[in-house]
Amino acid sequence: MEIKAVELSAKRGEEVLFQHLCFTIHDREVMTITGPNGIGKSTLLRIIAGFLQANEGTIEAKEDGQIFPVALLSHYLGSQNAMKTHLSVLQNLEFWSNFDSAQLLSPMEALDQVELSGIEHLPFGVLSTGQKRRVAIARLLLSHQPLWLLDEPTSGLDKHASSIFAKIMEDHRNRSGMIIAATHLPLGIEENYNILLDNYLPDFEES
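RE: above sequence
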């Protein structure tokens, strides 16, 4: 499978964040998006996920000559974890398990992978910041999608939790998965590409 972006640009209001951005990523590859706060890292991820429309350019997935919307092939992990605080950990994961197709692990199996077995009965809202992030990571394991789109995925994780997540990402890559991550911190796995958004700032004349 191939994900290809051609001449992407994005705006926030009337401000051009980046332009002329191109990349290609294949199975078993990892790409990071870096740059200072406010430069458009999260915006780029959300464009790839299909949540936002690019100002210009195209992005598509291709496999065996067929073209697919990238959103149909993606798991998106944003900064807000996408969990209901009043529901238990298990209830939240059961919702996502029922929502997603192509099931991979059960909620309890996913919790075991992030070493949180035994807290499934707790309301999500009472968990620590790191535990909340690990539950959100467990959601990625409930069903298989080839592309993981991760926004600051290691934020709030301690060293041990980061090493757990690094192994999870490596396992995903070994299943022919792809990862695109916006991050300030090293992911703990080898990356194939890096997009430094500073290199795609608008020309003054064009902005």
